[in-house]
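Notes to self after the Tuesday call (sharing in case useful).
The group wants a holo model before anyone commits to mutagenesis around the pocket. I volunteered. Ligand is flavin-adenine dinucleotide. Logging inputs and output together so the record is complete.
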Amino acid sequence: MSDDEKSLVVSGAGAAGISAAITAAQMGCPVLLVEKSQNEGGTVTKSLIHTLGGIFDSSGEFINNGITKELAERLLGAESFTKKRQIGRTWTLQCAPDIYGKVVKNWINELPQIKLMLNSFISAVEADKGSVKSVTVTGDKTAVINITDLIDATGKGETIRLINPDLVINNEPKASAGLIFILRGVDPDALSFPNNVKYLHHIRSEVKKGALPPALAGTWFDQGVYEGECYVKITVDADTAKTSSGFTDKLRDDLISCLRALPAFSKAVIYKTGAQGLRDSGRTAGEYSLSYEDVINARKFQDAACRCAWPVEFWDNENGVALEYLRENDYYEIPLRSLKVRSLENVWTAGKCFSADYRARSSARVAGCCWAMGEAVAKAVCKR
Ligand SMILES: Cc1cc2nc3c(=O)[nH]c(=O)nc-3n(C[C@H](O)[C@H](O)[C@H](O)COP(=O)(O)OP(=O)(O)OC[C@H]3O[C@@H](n4cnc5c(N)ncnc54)[C@H](O)[C@@H]3O)c2cc1C
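Result:
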């Protein structure tokens, strides 16, 4: 890409941004993928998500074809432990976050049309008459890039905020944040249903007795990808999570001390601790805002970008998780207008910061759906 050439720029290399960049590259569009941290992968790899939702419908069939299906096939082909897994009334793809990280890294590397800039971010945007002309990318060096289109896949509308802060809405109820860590060396019997429930009750009763802090009442366990592996999820208030990582580290350590006193966990060791994950950190104002009613009534749209059937899954700090399911074998659609930023001709968004109310977002933010949104936006942009 030469200095005076125009390029599609994608801000954020998480699920939606990677998907948008790969799709654009597959369509022959050169793309600059700008990621603020040192690795691509986003929340899935950083916060250790091992059950990818939004890939299958309620019968376990692929809900979207295209890139989400290709992702699943690549993940299944990369390691025999990756598998389709039913959890309650939903289907997920269970995969180690490390494997996911490797697969997406290799996939990006296969495509010379993608220029990936890690440790970089867009520090300024030049817009004129409702259209963005160029962005300044700051990393090792600073460069001004002329753009065709801009896709904000930062999960929080960070780049759109630079154009106009009023285009990022951040005043709705926020789902709680989460800290996930992986234990290994746990007795596998302790992790299968209904034994896992027994251990969760134990934690809750320790909280009631005052032996563990109240913040641990919403702790969740899940069997991991490998034998004896347990994913432990601590629920944290989103504002506390942003300001204090020491607080969650202390919670994790208290919890592990309590668990190690139980025979099934006596040999448990921490394999990895994820970064605190924020489920909600701002969403963009689009030409359409997907509503809770659209989701729960399985609404279809003429300008459908992709499908989703994941339940409305709202994580509340006090009351834990509440799930509201769609009708069996039904799905809603996400309109392309909710991925198009209002009043800006060539600016788009994809992933968890797309334009939707907070309850609609608590369904559509699952990783598979973010991949499908990224694909739809890139197709819309590259076809123009
Ligand atoms: C605790 C927790 C548990 C979850 N559990 C599940 C689950 O079990 N299954 C499931 O499917 N989903 C789960 N999710 C949701 C899902 O993982 C995310 O919603 C989804 O991965 C978001 O993808 P995204 O591409 O929109 O954003 P992200 O994956 O967050 O990617 C955004 C990227 O943008 C980068 N970025 C941010 N700001 C800038 C900037 N200014 N410039 C450049 N780059 C920037 C970030 O570093 C990041 O890499 C969970 C989320 C959390 C927090």
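Two things stood out.
The chain has two domains: 7-172+280-383, 177-273.
The first helix runs from residue 15 to 26.
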